[in-house]
């Protein structure tokens, strides 16, 4: 029995959460993998109702669970996810970009993952006014850089791909901060002679993700660059509706879609739940590895193939060229499971 804490979020968050609960309940019933799900408030609605975007009880319940699923939250995201990442030391943000068939994608031959440092950089919120200017502190440490580099090389080693790590930075301009990040990655690379290593400036990387995305395997980069590049890579393979993410630490992990609350389509039952459901696939793989539970791997694989096959057969939501609603698409998945 795995205890899952589930933040239901804002915008399309509650619709995606309904879909996630349906799928998890089906796995419970049909595939003999047991979950106890506790839904939790956090985000704009929680802020409005309780005065806190991340209520104390929510934090406590997450800490008492085996794993956390988080639907997107709205304007208060910085007070929720950024805080949770740091509080739980979820230092690795993993964002796969993988081609699925018959999508409105730019390319259909991509299988890469962005490993983004999750605790430092301009996202720590250390900002202040200085006269009539505003200043943001960018902190990059050797420890955090080496830790994420190691994670990226281990990921490349385990993946069935080119076994290549591309370190993305801008050390020609930010010589100290990105210089340290690059130097740390170069040092870690020496311990992985079987993994190819290359460096790329972030602007060149943004271009190459469009020009020759098939050349990437694992990208390792700092927090802000990773955030931007992963939205781009998700679009190359078909859009944010198919883009899952994991926030991983040594003892705990949180899984969420790459995208935000998408208020423009909220409440219309048209959001693509795949981003969240593929996050559940990543969650199952993580639980399987942590608890040596092969059943988790089997169900993870099954869930991904069901989504893959449905999309291939043209059963898909509007964002990727289909006509199914969120709930219809979810029902197709639970039927196939
Ligand atoms: P944030 O900065 O919080 O990531 P954002 O302003 O980048 O948010 P998102 O909410 O991430 O915006 O979404 C951008 C657009 O992509 C949305 O307006 C929506 O049209 C589309 N979109 C995002 N997620 C989905 C989804 N699951 N299904 C369908 N369309 C989506």
UniProtKB/TrEMBL annotation:
Keywords carried by this UniProt record:
Magnesium, Metal-binding, NAD, Oxidoreductase
Q: Which family does it belong to?
A: Belongs to the isocitrate and isopropylmalate dehydrogenases family.
Main enzyme class: oxidoreductase
Keyword flag S-adenosyl-L-methionine: no
Among SUPFAM superfamilies, the record links this protein to:
Isocitrate/Isopropylmalate dehydrogenase-like (SSF53659)
Q: Where is the signal peptide?
A: none
A GO BP annotation: coenzyme B biosynthetic process
The Isopropylmalate dehydrogenase-like domain is annotated at 3-333
- One matching Pfam family: Iso_dh
Protein name, UniProt field: Putative 3-isopropylmalate dehydrogenase
Q: Name one GO molecular function term.
A: NAD binding
InterPro entries according to UniProt: IsoCit/isopropylmalate_DH_CS, IsoPropMal-DH-like_dom, LEU3_arc
Which E.C. number(s) belong to this protein? 1.1.1.85
Query: Which coenzymes or cofactors are required?
Result: Mg(2+)
């Amino acid at each position: 029995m795995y205890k899952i804490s589930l933040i239901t979020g804002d915008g399309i968050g509650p619709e995606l959460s309904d879909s996630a609960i349906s799928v998890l309940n089906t796995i419970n019933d049909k595939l003999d993998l047991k979950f106890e799900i506790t839904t939790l408030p956090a985000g704009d609605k929680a802020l409005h109702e309780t005065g806190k975007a991340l209520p104390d009880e929510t934090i406590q319940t997450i800490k008492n669970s085996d794993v956390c699923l988080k639907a997107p939250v709205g304007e208060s995201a910085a007070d929720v996810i950024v805080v949770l990442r740091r509080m739980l030391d979820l230092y690795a943000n993993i964002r796969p970009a993988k081609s699925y068939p018959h999508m409105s994608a730019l390319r259909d031959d991509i299988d890469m993952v962005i490993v983004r440092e999750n605790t430092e950089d301009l996202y720590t919120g250390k900002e202040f006014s200085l006269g009539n200017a505003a200043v943001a502190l960018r902190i990059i440490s050797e420890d955090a850089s080496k830790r994420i580099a190691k994670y990226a090389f281990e990921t490349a080693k385990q993946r069935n791909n080119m076994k290549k790590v591309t370190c993305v930075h801008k050390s020609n301009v930010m010589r100290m901060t990105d210089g340290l990040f690059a130097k740390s990655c170069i040092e870690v690379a020496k311990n992985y002679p079987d993994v190819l290593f290359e460096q790329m400036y972030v602007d060149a990387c943004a271009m190459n993700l469009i020009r020759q995305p098939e050349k990437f395997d694992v990208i390792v980069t700092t927090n802000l660059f990773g955030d931007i590049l992963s939205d781009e890579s998700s679009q190359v393979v078909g859009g944010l509706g198919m883009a899952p993410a994991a926030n991983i630490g040594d003892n705990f992990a949180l899984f969420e879609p790459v995208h935000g609350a998408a208020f423009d389509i909220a409440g219309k039952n048209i959001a693509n739940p795949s981003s969240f459901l593929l996050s559940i696939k990543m969650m199952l793989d993580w639980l399987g590895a942590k608890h040596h539970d092969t059943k988790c791997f089997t169900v993870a694989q099954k869930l991904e193939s069901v989504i893959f096959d449905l999309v291939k057969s043209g059963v898909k939501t509007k964002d990727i060229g289909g006509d199914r609603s969120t709930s219809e698409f979810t029902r197709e998945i639970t039927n196939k499971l």
